[in-house]
Design brief:
44% helix; alpha/beta; 503 residues; Rossmann fold; 13 strands; 22 helices; binds adenosine monophosphate; 12% strand; six-stranded parallel sheet
Length: 503
């Protein structure tokens, strides 16, 4: 079902004119289905991913519901729970844009912002409170917030909340709210645990499912380059130079490759930045802003870091690695070629990626056109399955991507809960130790990288980290910080320290 226009959904004039200004002519399927139901006051169980327009699906009717009355001090009238700071900021942006003709205010309760400022806004009374769970509970426990006036609750990206270990917090928060309320619950998937929560939180909900079809928009020009592992960076540079790139995301399968690739691109003069879960949120946010302002043309990302971030409408998407899970390919390249605009998606496949490429082509139902890049050594498919290099499905039924995700998201959760200054400034012996196995992998990869390059004359020093890189032994950081810094300056230079990239 797709409504002809927003007016037929029952939205008020101030909202319709804000939408017209924004240039939205037609509601998306989830909006067409959700908006009338929410306006009627019913609970909603939405199975939908980011990119379907679900945020407007709940913000638009909420604005109309809330427009009738005013908020009291410290007692927000509605609450939206988001798993990450970035998503919370996007929702807030939506409220500002769609609610520009209404006199409603919102507050954000997210990590990385001053708690005192957030408290001050709440004291004035807010209509919409947009929060990440940890920070919300923190402020509640300090007595800065009363939740008994919350009449509308949105739990967004529930499956991500589950991945990030937020479910106990969510259950606690819901137990603090009035039982008479309207609840909207969104999740990209309906795992049994998510279904259990939906059953517990919702009353006779209207279920709305909008799947993003596993097809690729026809406005996307795609290509696949089969290239030897050691030629990938060179291949990417050649593609970047040959194409008219306005803005691009380059996806890597692993966090450590995000760092390595960023260094390489910067060294070769590209205006690039990077996002992955280990970077402090302040850095991720600043990078995102620069990318949106077109100060950075290239954003190197892991899937987890990019997920849920509203960066669409890109001229190009590059897969530096073939994703291990075919559906990630569709999500990745869906960031280009939106709204009928032309997009480009290029994938670098290494010899061991044959099966991963076949899985993508099976899912999308078409062959990705092969393209050749002049001047690189010819490459051939091998029988090895790159997805199985210590990363394939294991006995516990969860594959390493899922395990990796939980691990990768852990810092995001900690980042949200820990006061920023402590996290940013403290020496990091525990973190370094915790990373030891990964470090060994990285060293091995680096050695292999060097060996592969042999004497081919590859000058891409950004490809590996000299000196200690970011792996400075913990004892040097603790006992003689100054001396450690001096050693690093001498041996590797500050540009080799992973954290300096981010600064
Ligand atoms: P979401 O799934 O909520 O993250 O939205 C994905 C993107 O679609 C965002 O950039 C929205 O601004 C945009 N969007 C939402 N609704 C519409 C619409 N009806 N028409 C065009 N774009 C939309």
């Amino acid at each position: 079902m797709e409504a002809a226009d927003f007016a037929s959904l029952g939205l008020s004039e101030p909202i319709l004119s804000a939408l017209a200004e924004k240039g939205y002519s037609k509601p998306t399927p989830i909006q067409a289905q959700a908006i009338p139901v929410v306006l009627m006051g019913r609970d909603v169980l939405g199975v939908a991913q980011t990119g379907t327009g679900k945020t407007a699906g709940f913000t638009l009717p909420m604005l109309d519901i809330l427009a009738g009355s005013r908020a009291r001090a410290r007692m927000p009238r509605s609450l939206i729970l988001e798993p990450t700071r970035e998503l919370a900021l996007q929702v807030a942006e939506n409220f500002v844009q769609y609610g520009k003709n209404l006199k409603l205010n919102h507050a954000l309760l997210i990590g990385g912002e001053s708690m005192a400022d957030q408290k001050a806004v709440l004291t004035k009374g807010v209509d919409v409170l947009i929060a990440t769970p940890g920070r919300l509970l923190d402020l509640f426990e300090r007595g800065g917030l009363l939740l008994r006036d919350v009449r509308v609750l949105v739990i967004d990206e529930a499956d991500r909340m589950l991945d990030m270990g937020f479910i106990p917090d969510i259950e606690r928060i819901v137990s603090l709210l009035p039982t008479t309320r309207q609840t909207m619950f969104f999740s990209a998937t309906m795992a049994p645990e998510i279904r259990r929560l939906a059953d517990a939180f919702l009353t006779d909900p209207k279920q709305i499912s909008v799947s993003r079809p596993a097809t690729v928009a026809t406005t996307i020009t795609s290509g696949l380059v089969l290239v030897n592992e050691h030629d990938k960076r060179e291949a990417l540079r050649r593609l970047l130079r040959a194409e008219t790139v306005q803005n691009a995301i380059v996806f890597c399968n692993r966090k450590r490759d995000v760092d390595i690739l960023l260094k390489s691109l910067l060294k070769h003069g590209f205006a690039a930045g990077a996002l992955h879960g280990d970077l402090p949120q302040s850095v991720r946010f600043a990078t995102l802003e620069k990318f949106k302002a077109n100060e950075l043309k290239i954003l190197v990302c892991s899937d987890v870091a990019a997920r849920g971030i509203d960066i669409g409408g890109l001229s190009h998407v590059f897969n530096f690695d073939v994703p291990h899970h075919a559906e990630d390919y569709v999500h990745r390249i869906g960031r280009t070629g939106r709204a009928g605009r032309e997009g480009h998606a290029y994938t670098l496949a290494a010899p061991a990626d044959k099966l991963a490429v076949e899985a993508v082509e099976k899912l999308t139902g078409g062959t990705i056109p092969r393209i050749a890049i002049d001047g690189l050594d010819p490459a051939e498919w091998s029988d090895e399955d790159g997805r199985k290099r210590g990363r394939g499905p294991k006995k516990d039924g969860r594959d390493s991507r899922e395990r990796g995700r939980s691990k990768e998201r852990e810092p995001e959760r900690k980042a949200e809960q820990a006061p920023r200054p402590e996290r940013d400034q403290a020496p990091r012996p525990e973190r370094d130790q915790a990373r030891k196995p990964e470090r060994r992998d990285r060293d091995r990869d680096r050695d292999r990288d060097r060996g592969d390059r042999g004497d081919r004359g590859e000058r891409d020093h950004g490809a590996h980290v000299r000196g200690f890189g970011e792996n400075v032994p913990a004892f040097m950081l603790i006992r003689r910080r100054g001396a450690a810094a001096a050693v690093m300056d001498e041996e590797s230079g500050p540009e080799d320290n992973g954290s300096d990239i981010a600064a």
